[in-house]
Amino acid sequence: FLQWSQSVLLVIRGRGKIRYITREVQQPDVNVPAYENWELNNSIVMAWLINSMELHISRTYSFLRTSKAIWNTVNKNYSDLENASQVFEIKNKLKDLRQGSMDITEYYNEL
After folding, report:
1. Which among 40, 84, 97, 107 is placed 20 to 30 Å from 19, CA to CA?
2. Each residue's pLDDT tens digit, 64-101
3. Under a CB-based contact definition with an 8 Å cutoff, are residues 42 and 67 in contact?
4. Cβ distance 75 to 53 under 8 Å?
5. pTM above the 0.85 mark?
């Protein structure tokens, strides 16, 4: 999840649409002329998010109505799981790590 989220953030930020998932761009009222532009850009970001996921994962999120809702829900569902699995993996690696023939710089980088 962490790698996916960082990659997606890079793309969205690079395309100037990061405010659609940080909610700095609020959804205007449907009757306001700005709504059409918001809907267009929100749909673009939604498509980037959905298309960057594996199909069996994206099905769960494709019916949400805003890019912000997709982003928040994915984060809620995966970030804690990812953190727990990363902690477990790091603890296992540290348990087995030995300096051996590595110089101090290599060993430090492994840590």
Report:
1. 84
2. 999 999 999 998 888 765 566 666 677 778 888 888 88
3. yes
4. no
5. no
